[in-house]
Structure formats: structure tokens, C-alpha cells
Amino acid sequence: MDRTPAHGNGGLPPHAPIPPHSSDAEMALLGAMLIDRDVIGNVLSIIAKNEAHWFYKPDHQQLFEVLVDMYDANSEIDLVTTSDELRRRQLLDQVGGVEYLVALAESVPSSANADQYAAIVRDKGLLRDMIRCTGQISQLAYADNQPANEIIDEAEQQFFQVTERRITRQAEQLKTLVSDIYDRVQQGLDHTTMGLATGFTELDSLTCGFQPGDFIIVAGRPSMGKTALGLTMAEHAAVNDQKPIIFFSMEMSNQQVAQRILCSRGRIDSHSFRKGILSEEDKYQLGVVCDELSHAPFYVDDTPGMSILELRAKVRRIVRQHDVQAIFVDYIQLMHAPGHDSRQHEITTISRGLKAIGRELNIPVIALAQLNRQSEGRQGNRPRMSDLRESGALEQDADVILLIHREEYYNPEKIDDQGIAEIIIAKQRNGPTDTVKVQFNKKLTRFGNLSTAPVPAEYAQPADDNPF
After folding, report:
1. Among 97, 240, 315, 431, which one is most buried in terms of CB atoms within 10 A?
2. Using CA atoms, how far apart are residues 38 and 224, in angstroms rounded to an integer?
3. Share of residues in the chain with pLDDT > 90 (%)
């Protein structure tokens, strides 16, 4: 029994093709909901009340909303009570009267397949959303009254909104969750970390590595070594552990990033490298390091001023293509999110977006961030979480916040602090906070594990047992 919807051809011109829909699935789903109210809870995990538009026919949309309202009110649901509620709302005639309700109830033998009917309705609705989305984007492109970048950004946002609707999560029994955790523990008994190792022994011991889905912020004032620390961590993951990573560099070109890694890992003075003053030993070491790095699954994207939508699209592609295990972003304040009236709201959107990427793909997102000047006017110059620039959302959203402090930057005359940096674990949602001391070589712009021996001046080489 297929009645023509009130909106004719889905709101399209008469000559347009009929949009994807399944009247049979819609009728079967509503019929199942009429004869068994208990299936409505399962249906709502697939089609939420505010997604009634996934039903193609307006009368089906209205009936779905009424049935969900009755379910929410814990009312009995059958032909009589539903007819009465529709009559009370003056909707009974609009949905086809009692005769159509009877036809719906009789269209399905049982409610056993309600989930499958709901999935069909949802999928057809998603296809119509895609058609609507592409139509709106075509209109924007034909109008040609906005910069191309803005239209592309709008297109990405609309497509993201459509694709996000596919993601539905179901409640899982605790038994399954604890079993999964136990299996992971059994598989990793001989490892000191369960997440992405940074190579810093003490830091990994405190954090158990960067966990899948976590949003990690590495922050510091300018010249504290944020990029150097991020690159050192990324290099360890990709080169030492052979885990694919993507490093988004919005401050340096991909060639500059590669040069930094080459000089740092090869223990070659970057200034001498730029001037072309290299010894034969340096050239030999460069060849060794080039060979190491050529086998590393390390990807660099140097697109400047990326939007969160653009970054999300790129991450999805590269995760699908190369099974990337971690994302590094250098740095948050160089990103943008169009359509906001203040920088604070823009950073909030970026922060929420980065966290959502990690959760969606179940990989850690390590984002570098700048701190404001407040720490420099503070006794001891030590940074705090509250120094994160422009938005408290960063402090709220992050699962782990690492702050970099180098006393030698502020007091270069103090010999004891030469070559030493502190990584302050200011926040760790699932672990302790503490301070880890590491080695920092200014000449190589490289961090490493702190040797137990006295730390020499900045030109000293890392200890032989240093994993970097």
C-alpha cells in the first residue's frame, strides 16, 4: 500500500528522478513499532527522534514521532491508543486514518526484524541527505559569489555532517569490556607501555605511552622546544617502533622538517648543515640516517593554516591508506575554523574537533600548543595549564597535558641547569601528574633521556644507551 507523499517527489522538480527510499521498509518498521513497543528502544539507537526526516513520507515522519513520544511517556502502544493520540493531535486524517494504521500493523508478521527495517530507512535517508548536500554545494559553486576556499570548506562541513550520522555506538556489557582489556594485558606482559611509546623512559613509565583515542597537548613558550619534542616523539614511534605516523607541520615546510630530523638523529650541527660545512664523518652519518629514515612510515603534511575540517578529511584518508597509528599537529594556534565571531570560539571548535578525530579513529592525537606570557612574569617562570592561550577548552578537552620548561632559557648563567629540560605532566586523566627531567641539546635541537652521569654543556653528545 504505497501512497504518494504530500511533498510529491521529495521537494524536487517534477522531472527529477525519485530520491532513494523504501516504502516497504518504512511501513514494516512502523508496523513493528505498533505491534511491539519494546522494539522502539532498539530502533532509537539507529534512528533518533530528531532524525524522523529519514522517513521519506511526511505522514510516516509524523507517525514515527508520535510513537516515540508515547514510548518516552511510557504509554501503552497499540492501534487504539495510537489512534487516540493521533486524533488528539489532529493528525489522524493526515496519516491516513485508522485504516492505514491497520494496514501498517498487518504489513509485518512480527517485530523480529525491526532493526533491519530501521537500517534500511536510515541508509535511504543518508542517500537523500547526500543528494541534498551535493545539490546545495552545486548551487554555491554555480552562484560563484564566494571564494573557492570558502565553498570547499562549506562542502567539507556538509559532507562531514552527513558522514557523522553513520556513526552509532551501542552499549557493551562490562564482561566484554574487561575481557578485551585482559587480552590486551596478556598480549603486552613483556612491554612497559600499552600505548604509543615516546622513547622517554620515565615519561612512558608514568603515562604507559599515549593511549588510543587520547588527546594529548604538548605546550610551551616560544623557543622552549615544542617542535623538537614533538618531532623526537614522532621519530621514535616511526623509526624505532616502525609505527606509521602523520606529522602536520603548519610552521615549517616538509623539507625543513626532514632537515631537522636528519640533523637531529644524525647528531649533526644544523647550522653547519645549512652552511654546507660538513666533515666526511658527517656525510657518512647522514647516509646512515637517510637509510634509516627511508624505511620509516613517517608522513609529513606542510599545508599552512589548515582548518579542522580539512585536517579531518586528510587524516581519514591517510589512516585508511597507511594505517597511521598517531597524529601530530604543529601547532593548534596556526589552525583555523571559519564561521566564528571570536578566536576563543574558534580554538574551542578546533580543540573539540581534534579530540573527536582521536575518538573516531581510536588513535592518539598529539597537538602542540603555545602558552601565553603569564609564566614569564611568575616567580620561577614555571608554566601552568592555565597558561594555554585563547581557550579554556584546551585545558578541558585534553586527556594529557605536557608542559615544557627549560630553566637555562631564563637563567643561562646557571651551570647546573645547562642541557636539562623538564616535561611537566600537568594533567593526566587516567594517571599521575609529575615532572620528568630530560636532556636537551640546543646545538642539535634534540631531546633525549637524561643520563645518570652529570650533564655536560649543550654540545655534549647523548649517552650511548640513549634510545634517540
Report:
1. 315
2. 59
3. 13
Burial class, 183, CB count within 10 angstroms (exposed 0-12 / middle 13-18 / buried 19+):
exposed
452, containing H or E segment: none
Query: Which among 218, 265, 219, 256 is positioned nearest to 238, based on CA atoms?
Result: 265
Per-residue pLDDT of 259-281, as tens digits, reads: 888 888 878 776 777 767 777 77
- pLDDT value at residue 406: 86
- C-alpha 280/C-alpha 278 separation (Å) is 7
pLDDT at 368: 93
* DSSP per-residue codes, 324-371: --EEEEE-GGG-B-SS-SSHHHHHHHHHHHHHHHHHHHTS-EEEEEEB
Judge residue 269's burial from the number of C-beta atoms within 10 Å of its C-beta, 0-12 exposed, 13-18 middle, 19 or more buried.
Answer: middle
> Does residue 188 sit in helix, strand or coil?
coil
Alpha carbon distance 99, 91 (integer Å): 14
Q: Is 55 helix (H, G, I), strand (E, B) or coil?
A: coil
pLDDT tens digits for 176-193?
666 776 676 666 544 445
The cell numbers describing 343, all together, are 578566536
- Give the cell for residue 426: 600537568
- Residue with the three cell numbers 616511526: 238
Q: Which residues are catalytic?
A: 251
Within 8 A by CB and 6+ apart from 308, the residues are 335, 337, 349, 350, 353, 354
List, in order of start, the domains of the chain with CATH numbers.
23-164 (1.10.860.10), 194-449 (3.40.50.300)
* Residue partners of 312: CB distance under 8 A and separation at least 6: 156, 160, 353, 357
Nearest to 248 by CA among 324, 189, 173: 324
pLDDT at position 452 over 70 = no
Confidence of residue 157 (pLDDT cuts 50, 70, 90): low
Write the CA distances from 454 to 238, 281, 334, 457, integer angstroms.
Answer: 30, 27, 38, 10
